[in-house]
Amino acid sequence: MRLPLIASLLLGLIAPVLQILPISSGAAWAQKFSNNREIGVFYATTRQNDSPSGRPLYGASRHLDIGLGQGSTEYGVATFLKPDGRIPTIANSPTWQQLRDEMAKRDSYWTAAKVGQLNRLSDSDFFNRIKNFHGLICIYIHGYDMTFEESAREMAELADEYERRAPGQEILPILFSWPSTGNKADYTGDEASLEWSEAPFRDFINRLAREKSYDTSIDLVAHSMGSRLAFWYAMAQSQAPSSFGSAPFRNVILSCADIDYHTAEQRKGDLQKCTEKYVFVLTNDNDGPLLTSQALHAQTRLGRPADGGIAIRQIATTGNLSASKSADLLNTVNSLFSANSNSSSDNKDSKGSLAKFALNTFLQKKTAGNTSSAAGGKITESADISAWLARNPALSRDYGPKAQLIDDTGLVTVNMGHRIAWPLLTGLMLSQPTLAPFATSIVHKRPDALLLRQMGDSPTYLYRYNKIDLDRLSR
User: Fold this and answer.
1) For the chain, what percentages of helix, strand and coil (3-state, to nearest 5) are there?
2) What integer pLDDT is reported at residue 21 of this predicted model?
3) pLDDT in tens, 218-253
4) Which of 156, 219, 304, 358 might form a disulfide with 80, Cβ 3.0–4.6 angstroms?
């Protein structure tokens, strides 16, 4: 009998492959990507795998092509246990308080979730899965100060909520993870590694767009500093003919975008050309980390299109010449925020954070004119904006023909507004994008001080924002 010999040979051929394939107790998990107990997050990373063998280990080192210095991408899949099924989708929450409680439960679960299996995939296996998938591919780019596991957890939370809101609609979640150090003091180091990752990211997106099936769409979700990759990709595409015949993305969603506001204004047209449907920009006036970024760059950020950062920079550097270096300035600003923050029990989300100080220092000034206020449960414009619009209603305009601005100030429960706004993102990723269950009102924001001054202190346009009403749901 030769069967034992044949079986032994087959096992010898299959075993090396099994070492890089995901294994799960769920039937046919590798084909479905997810099951009732687990969710699988696929990844493409420019981080170096620091593990000599076995389970991959992705830290802050760059994965270089030997001799070239260019970025090289490694692929794989990470699994997570899903949260208890008794925690439903937030779309069914009957009240604001219940919705916020359920958001907090979900956030608490996912911020502590551990990666189960973590397996590498070969280049050919990864893209064969892309070719054979039919549904929505969601690519998530994380921001500054994020480890590989932290960013994988955020992708898992987003994908899990999408599955709950769109049962029966297949999603293939892909994390693009670049070598952030996961260290708050290393902001400029993260900027350098993000810039270095631009070329491999562009190559990855172009190949993905070429090899996906005709009935599969791609949504790009970028958070914080990661939003710059979306703009850099669009800039590169504007200078080269498309090799796949159509816009690569169905939607692009930017959450807490840490990119220069005026640069984004220059390049938003390029980004819209890369989308079939919409570019959604989520902004947050209470975003402490973006206020810190404004202090570092002395310029307004797209995710927080309001003044304040320059004043913070002036306060931080007064009498402190050593703060001229960005790392020193970052530490000084963080220390300043911590010293002036208030962790009172009436704001259980603040944790004595940067945003509390930002709120007290800038956002309560009646003359600021860059936030809306609630009066009698109704969102109202500031007096100067109301006067400008009364004189000339034609000042009101959208961010672009395919672009919408959304103000989610106060919504996100963890990290005081800078964490990925997954309750909104999942609605925007549906086949018919929606902000439900959130009720919204149209508001306008005054231009930043530099732009307004160059407009002659009277705006030539005012952008419309869909502002989340923190008192009402849409039912």
Assistant:
1) 40, 20, 35
2) 41
3) 999 999 999 999 999 999 998 876 666 789 999 999
4) 156
CB 396 within 8 A of CB 389: yes
pLDDT of residue 54: 84
- Following DSSP, what letter does each residue of 346-387 receive, concatenated? T-TT-TT-HHHHHIIIIIT-TTT-SS-EEETTEEE--HHHHH
Q: Is 298 left (phi over 0), alpha (psi -120 to 50) or beta?
A: left
Strand duo 217-223 + 249-255: pairing: parallel
- Which two tokens mark 64? 């270089």
pLDDT score at 245: 74
**Sequence ranges of the domains in the chain:** 28-307+370-473
Contacts (Cβ under 8 Å, ≥6 apart) of 190: 144, 145, 180, 181, 225
Q: How far is it, in rounded angstroms, from Cα 322 to Cα 110?
A: 39
Q: How far apart are CA 273 and CA 91, in angstroms?
A: 31
Note the Cα 78 to chain centre separation in Å: 19
**Rounded Cα gap, residues 350 and 356, in angstroms:** 6
> Which helix (H) or strand (E) segment is 270 a member of?
helix 261-273
Q: Dihedral of the CA atoms 252, 256, 258, 260 (nearest 10)?
A: 80
Other CB atoms closer than 10 Å to residue 475's CB: what's the count? 10
Strands (E), 53-188: 58-62, 74-81, 118-121, 136-141, 171-177
The encoded tokens of residue 380 equal 């109202």
pLDDT tens readout for residues 134-179: 999 999 999 999 999 999 999 999 999 999 999 889 999 999 999 9
Give the residue among 302, 60, 289 at the shortest CA–CA distance from 194. 60
* Residue ranges in the chain modelled with pLDDT below 70: 1-33, 66-71, 85, 241-244, 308-380, 413-417
Q: What is the pLDDT of residue 358?
A: 46
Closest by CA to 223, choosing from 107, 150, 141, is 141
Q: What is the pTM of this model?
A: 0.84
In whole angstroms, what is the distance from residue 18 CA to residue 292 CA?
Answer: 46
What six digits make up the tokens of 157?
Answer: 């939370």
Residue type, 219: D
- pLDDT at 71 (0 to 100): 62
What is the tens place of the pLDDT at every residue in 360-402?
544 443 333 334 444 334 566 788 999 999 999 999 999 999 9
pLDDT score of 266:
95
Q: How many CB atoms lie within 10 A of CB 6?
A: 10
**Residues recorded for the chain:** 475
Q: Which phi and psi angles does 461 have, rounded to 5°?
A: -160, 160
